[in-house]
């Protein structure tokens, strides 16, 4: 059973490789997993926003969870995203992903209905009680328009089956207050590539990092430096990735990233509606930057 103790290090949020007919490109998905395993990542998170959860059919989501789990083969945890807005669909997704081999679930804050803080608390407590797998809370208020109060997160962190969270709240004061009061058994993971070393320095035990799909070695080094208290060194290395991050997020993720993944031998640039492939000029510039960074880290680390 997945525990908070395993929620340490770098967990790439992985895209879903697809074919032109919107089906999973299984060969590319397996190639991506082989690459990440070879690079020594600490876990993977399929089927989040980066995985285009909302655009996939339910059957293809389950298939992606299964492919990821098969390739992981117990070597690293697979934490599948659950991004449904309604409780019953979210619970069914969790059961399906558990049956497909996932180790944990990343459950999104319920959105659109604008719940109260009490409603959010009750939602996660009920989900944790009924879930077939341990869960992580996924807080991303710039997508859901709902932030979870630190005091509610403190309460939820005491539930034995709520083992952590992906913190995508860019408000550092909110982050600091959250970390200050969560249970020792609860792992706060950074969900922001742009704030990752600061989050680790402030108490995150690792992170769910989008561009770690492309450069896992670089992000592992940033994590190690920050964890060792070498914050300035971690920030300096992180600063060198700002051009890549700027381009990777210049259009809606994962469009730019998918357009250059052939550089890591994953050939699947197609996107799912309503997202489209990245602008060719942006993709070309990102390709140059990624080639430079891959060469740098392959040589030095």
UniProtKB/TrEMBL annotation:
Pyruvate binds at residues 50, 208. Its EC number is 4.3.3.7. It catalyses: L-aspartate 4-semialdehyde + pyruvate = (2S,4S)-4-hydroxy-2,3,4,5-tetrahydrodipicolinate + H2O + H(+). It is an enzyme of class 4 (lyase). The keyword Cell inner membrane does not apply. The active site is at 138 (proton donor/acceptor), 166 (schiff-base intermediate with substrate). Keywords: Amino-acid biosynthesis, Cytoplasm, Diaminopimelate biosynthesis, Lyase, Lysine biosynthesis, Schiff base. GO terms for biological process: diaminopimelate biosynthetic process; lysine biosynthetic process via diaminopimelate. GO terms for molecular function: 4-hydroxy-tetrahydrodipicolinate synthase activity. It comes from the Bacteria. It holds the Pfam family DHDPS. SMART domains: DHDPS. Pathway: Amino-acid biosynthesis; L-lysine biosynthesis via DAP pathway; (S)-tetrahydrodipicolinate from L-aspartate: step 3/4. PANTHER family: 4-HYDROXY-2-OXOGLUTARATE ALDOLASE, MITOCHONDRIAL, DIHYDRODIPICOLINATE SYNTHASE. Catalyzes the condensation of (S)-aspartate-beta-semialdehyde [(S)-ASA] and pyruvate to 4-hydroxy-tetrahydrodipicolinate (HTPA). Belongs to the DapA family. This is 4-hydroxy-tetrahydrodipicolinate synthase. It comes from Caballeronia sordidicola (Burkholderia sordidicola).
């Amino acid at each position: 059973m997945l525990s908070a103790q395993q929620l340490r290090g770098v967990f790439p949020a992985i895209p879903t490789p697809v074919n032109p007919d919107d089906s999973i490109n299984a060969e590319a998905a397996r190639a991506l997993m082989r690459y990440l395993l070879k690079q020594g990542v600490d876990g993977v998170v399929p089927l989040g926003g980066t995985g285009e959860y909302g655009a996939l059919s339910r059957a293809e989501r389950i298939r992606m969870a299964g492919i990821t789990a098969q390739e992981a083969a117990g070597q690293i945890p697979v934490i599948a995203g659950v991004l449904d807005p309604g409780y019953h669909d979210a619970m069914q997704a969790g059961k399906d992903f558990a049956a497909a081999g996932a180790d944990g679930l990343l459950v999104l804050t319920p959105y659109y209905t604008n719940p109260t803080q009490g409603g959010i608390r009750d939602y996660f407590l009920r989900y944790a009680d009924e879930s077939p797998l341990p869960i992580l809370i996924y807080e991303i208020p710039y997508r859901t328009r709902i932030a979870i109060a630190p005091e509610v997160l403190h309460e939820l962190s005491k539930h034995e089956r709520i083992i952590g969270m992906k913190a995508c709240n860019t408000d550092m004061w909110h982050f600091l207050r959250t970390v200050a009061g969560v249970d020792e058994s609860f792992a706060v993971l950074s969900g922001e590539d742009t704030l990752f070393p600061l989050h680790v320095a402030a108490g995150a035990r690792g992170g769910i990092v989008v561009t770690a799909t492309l450069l896992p070695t670089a992000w592992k080094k940033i994590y190690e430096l920050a964890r060792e208290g070498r914050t300035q060194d971690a920030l300096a290395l992180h600063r060198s990735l700002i051009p890549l991050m700027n381009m990777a997020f210049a259009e809606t993720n994962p469009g730019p990233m998918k357009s250059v993944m052939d550089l890591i031998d994953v050939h699947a640039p197609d996107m799912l509606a309503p997202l489209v492939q990245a602008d060719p000029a942006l993709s070309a510039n990102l390709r140059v930057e990624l080639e430079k960074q891959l060469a740098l880290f392959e040589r030095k680390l």
